Amino acid sequence: MKTKILNIENDNCSRREFLKDVVKSVGVVTVGSFVISQFNACSDESNPTSPSGGNNQNGPITIDISLSENSALTNVGGSIVISGNNLDGKGMLIIRSSETTVSALSRNCTHQGCTLPNFQGGASRCPCHGSRFDTAGKVLNGPATDPLKTYSASIDGNIITVTG
Ligand code: FES
């Protein structure tokens, strides 16, 4: 962006030129802010949790539920979101479905690929167009029509393991 000295009496910068440049600059900033806000609307990263421990390029993901950031998974019905990883670039929703079982779902909305947030009241609601998915990944309401991708997940003691 061109920078002008704010001296409108300067011969090299008439009042008209100055005002034209101001209008152009405001337009660029406004459009830029709009584009950024649209990107943000499609990615709810308000509380992403990174998978913890033992994760490598191609291997399974492990999550230690004894860590405070994963403590929601100590309770049946609890869930967390994890950030993008080697199995799913969008990240995953991890759900404690019973005392002995867990499930893992992609956070990739099947409508147009926005990132899904954690469950609230048993549903994950897409921030882009409002599709809702249940804890099994099934569509509760559209516009999405396809269920979420699921991953194999198991729990052994405090360690959850997710594989492709
Ligand atoms: S991208 Fe999720 S509802 Fe459209």
Element-level helix/strand string: HEEEEEEEEE
* Number of extended strands: 9
CATH class term of the largest domain:
Mainly Beta
Based on CA atoms alone, the radius of gyration comes out at 23 Å
Strand % is: 15-25%
Supply the number of helical segments. 1
What's the SSE blueprint?
Blueprint: H1 15-41, E1 61-64, E2 79-82, E3 92-96, E4 102-106, E5 124-125, E6 132-133, E7 139-141, E8 150-156, E9 159-163
Antiparallel strand pairs: 1-9, 2-3, 3-4, 4-8, 5-6, 6-7, 8-9
The chain binds FE2/S2 (inorganic) cluster.
Structure overview:
The protein folds into two domains: 1-41; 61-163, Rieske Iron-sulfur Protein. Helix content is 16%, strand content 23%. The longest helix has 27 residues, at 15-41. It is globular and about 40 Å long. The chain has one helix spanning 15-41; strands at residues 61-64, 79-82, 92-96, 102-106, 124-125, 132-133, 139-141, 150-156, 159-163. The strands form two sheets. A six-stranded antiparallel beta sheet has the order 1-9-8-4-3-2, with no helix packed on it. The protein has 164 residues and is an alpha+beta fold. The protein starts with 14 loop residues before the first helix and ends with a strand. The protein contains one helix and nine strands; from the N terminus they run αβββββββββ. The model is unreliable at 1-16 and 22-47 (pLDDT under 50). Bound molecules: FE2/S2 (inorganic) cluster. FE2/S2 (inorganic) cluster binds next to loops.
List key phrases describing it.
disordered N terminus, Rieske Iron-sulfur Protein, binds FE2/S2 (inorganic) cluster, single chain, 164 residues, globular, six-stranded antiparallel β-sheet, three-stranded antiparallel β-sheet, alpha+beta
